[in-house]
Amino acid sequence: MAHKPSIPKGTRDFSPSQVSKRNYIFDIIKKHFRTFGFQPIETPSFEKSETLLGKYGEEGDRLIFKILNSGDFISKVDDVTYSSKKSNTIAPKISEKALRYDLTVPFARYVVMNQNELDFPFKRYQIQPVWRADRPQKGRFREFYQCDADVVGSKSFIQEIEFIQLYDSVFTDLGLKGVTIKMNNRKILAGIAEVIGAKNLLIDFTVALDKLDKIGIEGVQKEMLEKGISAQSIEKLTPLFSLMGGSLERLESLKQLLADSEIGLEGIKELTYIIKGVEALGLKSSKLGLDITLARGLNYYTGAIFEVSAPEGIAMGSIGGGGRYDDLTGIFGLKDVSGVGISFGLDRIYLVLEELNLFPENIENTLDVLCVNFGEDEAMTALQLISKLRESGVKADVYPTATKMQKQMKYANNRKVPYVILIGAQELENKTFVVKNMVNGEQTEYAMNAIEEFLKVL
RNA sequence: GUGGUUGUAGCUCAGCUGGUUAGAGCGCUGGUUUGUGGUACCAGAAGUCGCCGGUUCGAACCCGGUCUUCCACCCCA
Which chain B positions come under 7 Å from a protein C-beta? Predict the structure, then answer.
């Protein structure tokens, strides 16, 4: 072997302990998806390029992994295109498929393709990896899992309320207390843009506003100026930064600022309804907050938008997000289907749970019982015992070779096995087995025909 | 995509302005202990110093390239 093997940038191998911890999170998320009435679907890892390209903005397109065509694909490119040396022109000729970038767009495609079979409102959840050709950072990978739940075919804001409860249920169950669910509404952002006269610069406007807590008011104003929003417009924005009070109070104040914007007022009405609903039902451990500056990148959101941030003091980007999109299926030819959904960022939740030491202790316990091997006859007897334990659902194993006891005990210790069974010559003769509790070192002898006694201890 | 950062034993890291046989802790192997792990003591193995090239009498150390890591942009889970 000339070089040590390695894996591509931004990808990871997962050890047994890491997989156990990841599954712990997956299982909890799935459990709550199901109890909220969502059904699972899966879609292919790769889609036709046309399905994905142009759905995430220019920046998104750049981050989509494109798959080279099979066969002698270069020879099929005409000379003019080939010699142009322009990636954007050549790429479509040599690549017709791309790795899925998120789960929402493939879901929209799925809904359109199966519109006649689905019962609307259709609630689905989907837990699969996605790929982005991004530059990796902490909590940012090129291959990572998304855990999505969406509802399509219902304009009711009860859905939004339920998604906030779903977030709360999952994070409470994970023991992650004090997460903040930030909420805003694209209609409010559109309203503000309209009122200040920057309607046609909505995207630049929201992107700049989104950075408020990072670069401050002056930074936001500077960026808006650079993007071509007039100083006059920016001036009109000032009252926005000094809104006071609770969510509902701030919405009330906002009403006056957006009095001339129909769409803005609509957004306020929606958020007021949702916040009142959530307040009436109550949250178990999360906090719901209104954040007028929350924008979120993806262009397809049209109504409420959510973003979940880790509890205070944890340096981690958002651990979940979502929102309502009124016309996602429209791009695939199915009009007037409103959808709303949320996503959990598994990898980041993992990092947060790890940092706060919130994984249950027994999660890495992959073996309950190890039987020491003393030799051929003893091992055969041990195997009979182990088989019975396995039938009762106990994770049990026999050490495969009769090496030194010290080595076998050490192996049990490293694997964090709570019980070691000893069957040596003496036990063989007495038809018994000795169980050693690896935590307190105590040993108990059981009769071979009284396995139930031992099962009670487990 | 832009700018920066990191890479030395299985792991975490030392290694002075380039100087001869590259170190520590943990882990691993063996022993003290031939039916007992987690503690202690003793001994031992293990590294083409990320990779390729250059400068130099001489490179882990300087220079260039490349891959990787992390960070700030961009964007986002």
Answer: 1-3, 28-31, 33, 35-38, 48, 50-51, 67-77
Phi (first) and psi of residue A103, to 5 degrees: -105, -10
Distance CA A316, CA A310 (A): 7
Which of residues 66-85 of A have CB within 7 Å of strand B?
none
CA→C1' distance for A139 and B70 (Å)? 11
What are the residues whose beta carbons fall under 8 Å from the beta carbon of A246, sequence distance 6 or more? none
- Name residues whose C-beta falls within 8 Å of residue A95's C-beta, 6 or more positions apart in sequence: A49, A66, A67, A68, A69
Specify which residues A420 forms β-bridges with.
Answer: A370, A436
Residues A419 and A438: their CA atoms lie apart, in Å, by 6
DSSP structure string for A280-341? HH--SS-EEEE-TT---S-TT--SEEEEEEPSTT----EEEEEEEESSTGGGGT--S--EEE
Q: Which of residues 398-417 of A touch strand B (CB under 7 A)?
A: 404-407, 409-410, 412-414
Chain A residues 109-128, Cβ below 7 A from strand B: none
**Tokens, residue A43:** 């879609």
Q: What is the spatial distance between Cα A123 and Cα A339, in angstroms, rounded to a whole number?
A: 10
Map out the domains of chain A with their CATH numbers: 16-355 (3.30.930.10), 365-455 (3.40.50.800)
Question: A389 beta carbon < 7 A from strand B?
Answer: no
- Interval A418-450: pLDDT, tens: 999 999 999 999 999 999 999 888 899 999 999
Please give the full DSSP string across A198-222, using - where no structure is assigned: -GGGHHHHHHHHHTHHHHHHHHHHH
Rounded Cα distance, A18 and A274, in Å: 37
Checking each nucleotide's C1' against the CA of A219, the nearest proves to be: B73
**In contact, A16 and A366? CB cutoff 8 Å:** yes
Question: Can you tell me the ipTM of this complex?
Answer: 0.84
What is the pTM for the complete model shown? 0.88
* Nucleic strand B under 7 Å from the C-beta of A87: no
Q: Is the CB of A57 under 7 A from strand B?
A: yes
Low-confidence ranges of chain A (pLDDT < 50): 1-2
A135 touches strand B (CB under 7 A): yes
